[in-house]
Amino acid sequence: MTKKQADAERGPRLDAGAVVRTALELLDENGLDALSTRAVADRLGVRMNTVLWHVKTKARLLELMADAVVGQAPLDRLPDAWDDRARELVRRYRHALLARRDGAALVTGTYPAEPHTLRFAEALVGALLDGGMTEREAAWTMWALVYFTLGLAQEEQSAAARPRDGSLARAVSADTHPALYRTLAHLGAESFDARFEFGLDAILARG
Known about the structure:
- The protein has 207 residues and is mainly α.
- The protein has helices at residues 3-9, 16-30, 37-44, 48-55, 58-70, 82-98, 103-108, 115-130, 135-159, 167-171, 178-182, 184-187, 192-206.
- The radius of gyration is 21 Å and the shape is flat.
């Protein structure tokens, strides 16, 4: 590719934002495993090197995509009370993850110190500090909330593609796993909303 051609492809019609938006479209269509910089380039009608010129590496592209996903969690009109504010922020975070195919898996695999992610973290940590937590308690409670939400959202997003085959019920018996057997009906539950709210309450109660 000549410099003139490269400059043309890097012109106003294509920038990092356009690359990220296209990558998110492909994520929704085909899932995270099928996502590649080549697929993004093909969709945009440019060379793969042009895509990489804007986002440098696939890892960097994933970071920017993850930040865009988190950016879909609005930070306005939050409750005044610190605990209600923290709960609402995490609910919005979960909703943003679930709004994209494999959104939780995408965000889990990244650690972006990017604007949207930092603004969300600032709002959540601020709420926890307003509740009287120490700096360490606020930081670690934030991580507990984020990791719990990411894990449960990943399970929820994969559940639709994973048929319930009864393997857990067959593997657990009253003789060999008495404690698990007693709770078996709840271990296999797919009531994700209720499980999310339970975990949210449990984490904040300990905080």
